[in-house]
Specification:
With 344 residues, the protein is α/β, with parallel strands linked by helices. It has 12 helices and 8 strands. The protein has 3 domains: 116 residues, ATPase, nucleotide binding domain (Nucleotidyltransferase, domain 5), CATH 3.30.420; 96 residues; 114 residues, no CATH class. Helix 2 links the parallel strand 4 and strand 5. The protein is globular.
Length: 344
Amino acid sequence: MVIIGIDPHKSSLTAVAIDHDGTTVASRRFVVNAGTATALATWSQRWTERRYAIEGAKGLGRGIAQILVAHGDDVVDVPSTLAMKVRVLSTGGGRKTDPDDARAVALTALYHRDLHRVHREDQSTILRLLSERRDDLTRERTRALNRLHQLLRELIPGGVPTGLSADKAAAALRGIRPASVTDACRRDLAKDILADLRRLDANIKANEAQMRDAVAATGTTLPEIHCISTVLAAKLLGHVGDIGRFPSADHFAGYTGTAPLAASSGERTRHRLNTGGNRQLNSVLHTVAVCQARDPGPGRIYYQRKLDEGKTPTEARRALKRRLANVLYRRMRRDQQAPLPAAA
């Protein structure tokens, strides 16, 4: 088995092939263009048994990784942080070149058997794209609202109440009579921002409709869980992808950052808060935990039990997040085994 490590860049990629002993057997740099995949495949045909290891297969390496997977090749994703550590250890210092990076990627795949295998993009990729688009739209809408609040505060004594919407802003603008040329400019700018706000509201609404259809196409039952909306379900499915890549609920909890980390030393046994993991998934679990701790139901009962045990509200909420990670893992594993709904 030959492992071909690939260090991708925007305009080029470097491939280094190593054998089972870690010895470099070939190396080549490719210019990124329409024929890169063909050139790479032709160069690697000499090895009948091969595996591609690509650094950042969901980032700069996404294009070549998807092409190779579509051709039936075995491809694994190598995290850049892990490859960096292997490079430093294998070179004995901080020397960094593209061939060194590609070789480190190959060595990482040689010695780490639990790397994520790259699969063809599917419905989860669509959900992730839609979820990221919604986040972008929401941030833009927040900025527009803040700017609109500022202008209205300068035009209206005391400004306008919180909870501003496009309709409320339009009503406020209709009652403004500029006292100077400067105020007239402020009013015109506020009208422009109001138009941006209405456009963003329409885009967010269209995005939610797309997200609703995409979630329904997966056949997931996540929205049946209390406090998990279509938007949260889309973010969960988009960032988790194939739930089967997590061998247990504990592994999934570690990925979401809800499992505490062991920090024992000597005879002292302790754990600390996990500030790593996928922060998008951690944010979803936090939102669901806050909602379930507030509303009547199993989540509220569990949260209250932790409070009765002497935990602080923050500690009780973290415990609820950890429990929710188990619930979501089991639900997604069950959904994965269920047949998809028939197309209409």
